[in-house]
Amino acid sequence: MTVDDLRARRPGGRTRLVTERLRAAALEIVAESGIDGLQYEELASRAQVGRATVYRRWPNRDDLFRDVLTHFAETTVQIENTGDIVRDLTTFLQSFAEASITPAGRAVLQILLRRTDGNDGLHHVGVELLDRRTGELQRRLDRATEAGQLPPAEAPFVNMMLIGPVQWFVLRRERPFLPEDAQAIVELVVAGLWRDHVD
Amino acid sequence: MTVDDLRARRPGGRTRLVTERLRAAALEIVAESGIDGLQYEELASRAQVGRATVYRRWPNRDDLFRDVLTHFAETTVQIENTGDIVRDLTTFLQSFAEASITPAGRAVLQILLRRTDGNDGLHHVGVELLDRRTGELQRRLDRATEAGQLPPAEAPFVNMMLIGPVQWFVLRRERPFLPEDAQAIVELVVAGLWRDHVD
């Protein structure tokens, strides 16, 4: 174990603070200049560290983005279980909308939008992030089904039907995404799922 | 009327061909390097014209993007009226999905994703494009309502509920968007709209 490793394990240690500063600076640059605008030189200068410090943490930009985005995904967008599925999905959409308009949320979209040559590890990271919560959503939907609040439902499809409209809404930036917007989306989707079941 | 104007009115004339070549080159560059990667110098060189030719047509990049994207919107994504609303909306989603994966479709998304300082004419162009078909969609929905195929429905909300999931799907690029994907989305939304009406 190196000294750096030890430092990293001590919450609030210098290494950890430097890492957080670098992550924040990386997201700022991507939000301003896009993925391809990120240069290690500028990143180091914004975070006030040497360039070697950046290269030691993340030998290439894919490593950097993977780390930054994974960290982002772990700290945002929770699916609650209050027992009321409409309420919990509404909260879920609101927290997704809030996360989407942060620099990190926009960076994820930038990654997904990049043109690829068929072998793009970074696009895969973006898709992984989108799918990260599918398992959690499936468990929440299953509980709602057990409680008689939903017919059996597939999380990937439900996720697309809920998150797609929110993403569409926030991309427009015409006005803030409100609780009633989230609720209208959730109610339509839940009603649609029931109808499928009845037919 | 100038000579250029006359040429522009003659279909297949040199001026028109140059304009089309420039539009295509602009979309290619945006797809490869993003909006901010577009320089008039490179654009002129790709389209094999002088830089002055580009500046004469579009004094600044906002003019260029407005023209290119408006032209794109006019030539794609129709809403048909066969008398069957589920079928027509399904066709609509398929043609939207096809348009989304073209360089022009990705350029629209790039524009919407750009960070703005509150006064961004280009973002407005992107939103205008998204809204361009709302009037047409409202008329198609109204006819379906008259035919008893739908309860009264607001086009902006229906558009978000239909197009949002498609956009989400195509951003992932995991597999092609199929007719059955379009149909599953349309059926859920139509069923959800009915349920709202019954309640």
UniProtKB/TrEMBL annotation, chains A, B:
Protein name as catalogued: TetR/AcrR family transcriptional regulator
PANTHER family cross-referenced by the UniProt entry: HTH-TYPE TRANSCRIPTIONAL REGULATOR RUTR, TETR-FAMILY TRANSCRIPTIONAL REGULATOR
DNA-binding region: 39-58
A Pfam family hit: TetR_C_11
Keywords: DNA-binding, Transcription, Transcription regulation
Transmembrane spans: none
Matching InterPro entries: Homeodomain-like_sf, HTH-type_TetR-like_transc_reg, HTH_TetR, Tet_transcr_reg_TetR-rel_C_sf, TetR_C
Domain HTH tetR-type: 16-76
Natural source organism: Microbacterium galbinum
